Amino acid sequence: MGRLSFAALTGAGLLTAAPGVALAHMPFMLPNMFDLTDRDHVTIQAGFAEDPFISEVVMKSDAFHTQGPGGAVAPIKDVTYLRDLAVFEAQVPEKGTYRISSGERFGRKGKMYKSAAGEWVIGEGVEKPASAQLVDVQSMTLAEAYVTRGSPTKDALAPTGKSLELRPITHPSEIFAAQPATFELLFEGKPVAGANVEVYRSAGNYDGKKKIDGQITTDAAGRFSITAPDAGTYLALIRHRTASPAGAETPYRSYSYTLTFEATE
Predict the structure, then answer these.
(1) Which among 55, 57, 141, 252 has most CB atoms closer than 10 A?
(2) Could you read off the pLDDT of 165-177 as tens digits, one per residue?
(3) Is 146 contained in some domain?
(4) Residue 1: inside a domain, yes or no?
(5) b or e along 40-71 (b: 16 or more beta carbons within 10 Å of the residue's beta carbon)?
(6) Residue whose C-alpha is closest to residue 102's, from 168, 28, 15
(7) 228: containing domain
(8) What's the whole-model pTM score?
(9) What's the rounded Cα separation, in Å, for the pair 151 and 49?
């Protein structure tokens, strides 16, 4: 059996309720629209997908919420859980920009080899890498999207300072095709350098080009840019592994964060 990447493990992190599902599944939040004009609500799909936004496994969370203008956080309680995805309406009572979030979710626990050189591979049924130790890892996932009613505002873009998250430098309502959009990757409020960013195109489900070409890596300040090649819906996926906080059930954690955004003409 060949080695499986750490990315494969983290992609499957929260699928304990669905044995046999492919390891490449990604969490996502998908609004039915990003520019709400003057609508007072937005409808959201949430799930796990192998291909962008084609849900195969329902996402369940007790922490679905919105953060709106002024920074106020409102929990979302009325969620419909289907077998393949979750659906809910989020209220947007005021004009401005809202963050729609799954909240951080505890996921699957597993064994991995961690080498002295920083290489990670799944530790179940694979040959032990040189100078590596077998460690317990738990997956943590967070999926988010931004929508705007009326004119864009910035309150909801402020980082929480907790776990793995993106801070949009370019406002999500102002991402355009063929123009770079800049973000900052943070972990516990501090920039993460050298992280790989994968960007998936929803149009790729039809034209076969599922990922943006070229490697995207955060710089020393945790910043990176995404240039959407065409108009459409995109999913940015970032993973980060590190030692767990004191009192955690496993010594290491694998964090996965996804941001759904729209690029317009």
Answers:
(1) 141
(2) 999 999 999 999 9
(3) yes
(4) no
(5) eebebbbbbbeebbebbbbbebeebbbbbbee
(6) 28
(7) 6-263
(8) 0.87
(9) 32
